[in-house]
């Protein structure tokens, strides 16, 4: 009997100790953080199919809530929304009380239907390193007060409805490594980015305009995409400085001037400079090791360089190239080493292919609408039109 009583006593004491620890753990959460989480939860709603907020029961320890991570008595990371692939996410707004979580180092909101503006109170999160609020319906402007968050490394506000300029104060953040603002409605000129650790800058599909002066982008950049904007001006002094780039997409803008020869030696796999106003001859220094080069829909002229023979997918169509297609380029195409060669809508006068030769099934060639009779008939994109050869008057008038 005595042993049984001892066991019961021990069991009661263990239960009391556990309960006490739970209550103690709950009690030490900073009151400001506790109230901030309550306000944040009231401004959000689970969308159909999401059960993220079901664990946010404020009669228990908030540090056990889904997406809440604590260190000591403070919340240090907040991942709002259901992280499961395909989950519906949250709707609502971002409550300004978010600024009370002053020890946050990470704030993310997964795809959903969060609306409204980014609260200016984000500037109070001076410990924040990672800010990721993408694929929602955030509107308004990027707060210039983010310049107070000097430890920010990653800013991902992509796929929202943000408008206005990127504040120059944001460009001055010293520790940035990743800036992803693509697929918004941002406009105006680009600020100078001073961070010497910035490696990724993704601004595609916005309404930015103006030029990008040399020195506005740090030499540390490895990924640069500004496609589908309205940028203008030359890049021949800007790009040679960015020789660490492994990805470059300047397509669908209004850049002008020559294409610097040095970029064909960059360690990249895809070079997209299409649909701009680049002009002049194109002269790489050495054989081009880039897998895909797209220079189409520009104002480039001169002869096609044989140094492009090592490119697997080469788009030179819709320019003003003249002369004969290099023999080395045709040889590699016939050997199946060049997978795609688009030369349509230029002023080329010859291509060393015999009418009896057969283009490999694995390769695509388009030559139509040049200043020559096509030696072979090959399928071309629909946008190339139906005319096989340029009018003689155009070929006589064109002087390169």
TrEMBL record:
Stretches assigned to the Leucine-rich repeat-containing N-terminal plant-type domain: 31-71
Signal peptide range in chain numbering: 1-27
Highest taxon listed in the record's lineage: Eukaryota
Name of the protein this chain belongs to: Leucine-rich repeat-containing N-terminal plant-type domain-containing protein
UniProt keyword Isomerase present: no
Keywords, in A-Z order: Glycoprotein, Leucine-rich repeat, Membrane, Repeat, Signal
A cellular-component GO term for this protein: membrane
PANTHER family to which the protein is assigned, alphabetical: LEUCINE-RICH REPEAT (LRR) FAMILY PROTEIN (PTHR48009)
Subcellular location: Membrane
First-listed, main subcellular location of the protein, grouped into a coarse class: membrane
Keyword check for Membrane: yes
């Amino acid at each position: 009997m005595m042993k049984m009583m001892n066991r019961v006593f021990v069991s009661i004491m263990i239960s009391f100790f556990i309960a006490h620890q739970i209550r103690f753990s709950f009690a030490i959460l900073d009151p400001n953080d506790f109230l901030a989480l309550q306000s944040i939860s009231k401004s959000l709603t689970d969308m159909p199919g999401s059960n993220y907020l079901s664990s946010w029961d404020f009669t228990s320890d908030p540090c056990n809530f889904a997406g809440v991570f604590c260190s000591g008595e403070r919340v240090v990371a907040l991942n709002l929304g259901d992280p499961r692939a395909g989950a519906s996410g949250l709707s609502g707004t971002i409550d300004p009380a978010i600024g009370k979580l002053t020890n946050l180092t990470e704030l993310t909101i997964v795809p959903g239907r969060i609306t409204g503006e980014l609260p200016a109170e984000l500037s109070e999160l001076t410990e924040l390193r990672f800010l990721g609020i993408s694929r929602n319906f955030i509107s308004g402007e990027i707060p210039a007060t983010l310049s107070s968050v000097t430890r920010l490394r990653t800013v991902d506000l992509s796929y929202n409805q943000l408008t206005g300029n990127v504040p120059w104060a944001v460009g001055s953040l010293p520790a940035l490594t990743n800036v992803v603002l693509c697929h918004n409605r941002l406009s105006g000129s680009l600020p100078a980015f001073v961070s010497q650790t910035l490696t990724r800058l993704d601004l595609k599909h916005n309404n930015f305009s103006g030029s990008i002066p040399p020195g506005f982008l740090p030499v540390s950049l490895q990924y640069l995409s500004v496609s589908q904007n309205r940028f203008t001006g030359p890049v021949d002094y800007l790009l040679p400085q960015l020789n660490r780039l492994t990805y470059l997409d300047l397509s669908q803008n209004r850049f002008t001037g020559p294409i610097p020869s040095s970029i064909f030696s960059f360690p990249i796999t895809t070079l997209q400079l299409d649909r701009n106003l680049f002009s002049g001859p194109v002269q790489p220094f050495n054989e081009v090791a880039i897998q895909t080069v797209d220079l189409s829909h520009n104002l480039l002229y001169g002869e096609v360089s044989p140094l492009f023979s090592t490119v697997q997918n080469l788009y030179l169509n819709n320019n003003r190239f003249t002369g004969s297609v290099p023999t080395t380029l045709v040889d590699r195409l016939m050997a199946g080493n060049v997978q795609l060669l688009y030369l349509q809508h230029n002023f080329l006068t010859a291509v060393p292919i015999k009418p009896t030769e057969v283009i490999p099934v694995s390769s695509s060639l388009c030559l139509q609408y040049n200043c020559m009779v096509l030696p072979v008939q090959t399928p071309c994109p629909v946008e190339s039109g139906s005319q096989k050869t340029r009018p003689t008057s155009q070929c006589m008038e064109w002087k390169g």
